[in-house]
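retry 2 of 3: previous attempt timed out while embedding riboflavin. Reduced batch size to 1 and resubmitted. Inputs unchanged:
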Amino acid sequence: MPFLKKGCVLTMGNYDGFHLGHQTILSLLKSQSFKRKLPSLVYTFDPHPVKILAPEIAPPLINTLDQKIELLQKMKIDILVLEKFTPRFAKTSPEVFFKTHLMHHLHPHFITVGYDFTFGSKRMGNIETLERLCFENQIDVKIVDPKMVGQKLASSSLIRKLLEQGKVDKARELLNRPYFMDGEIIRGEQRGTMLGFPTANLKTKNEISPAVGVYATLFCLNHKNYLSATNVGHRPTFGKGELAIETHVFGLKKNIYGKKVRVFFIKKIRDEKKFDSEQFLIRQIRSDINKAKQILSHYREKHAG
Ligand code: RBF
Ligand code: MG
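retry 2 succeeded.
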């Protein structure tokens, strides 16, 4: 990369979830970029290495690649390097990775990574290896400590766990933004319309759905956020169907099939239940909507938007 001949400041990692810990690293990277008048560069992999190395135990990812790119763009990072992660690349030793992929190609003057960073084949390179290689090559290095929110560590694995338990509000604190899913609206069974609560059914590439249940959500369509309530579940009242993510959007009348939308999960309202009659379900959904409005107006007051 000839335009990097003058050097850069660099961080590397998988950055799944792009949580508060990652955000801390990127803030440091940007302040170093400003001080040194060098471009900020984020070096990451696609696909996530674990999908190649151990697909059978690969955790579902918090973000899609597109979301990760968007989040990095919002942080105003100058350069993003997406290294294609292949079985062959996985065999690179820590030393060769450092010399060839980092030094030779990218000319970093400063490197920052999180406390748990590992690199090179079999993850043989750790923080000590990195510090040694940086020292030998006169590159400044800064290891960022774990980031705590109260008693909780901002980590991708804890965030996955919280989402899988439906604790989207707790995940939100560690992410420093609500968990969101992107996708396209597909045609459902039209039963919602019959019940008086039409729903927009989401087809998504996000790998994690929050636990089955009913959530207060914000629904973003054409750059506008609508208050909404989302059911993640199997509609047991009508016989157990496939897992669906369906949102009742308050005050939205028009047909939005095929539209691209984003659903922000703010807080869980309750578990999904099997009702003895449609009337009971309808009554419950009415109360869910009120609850969602309360939660969302409180949320918006606090977050100005
Ligand atoms: N279906 C259920 O069987 N049990 C529920 O507890 C339930 N809660 C819902 C809450 C909301 C806010 C919404 C929008 C839907 C809910 N549904 C539930 C799904 C409902 O059965 C579904 O929207 C219609 O059957 C149309 O697919
Ligand atoms: Mg529907």
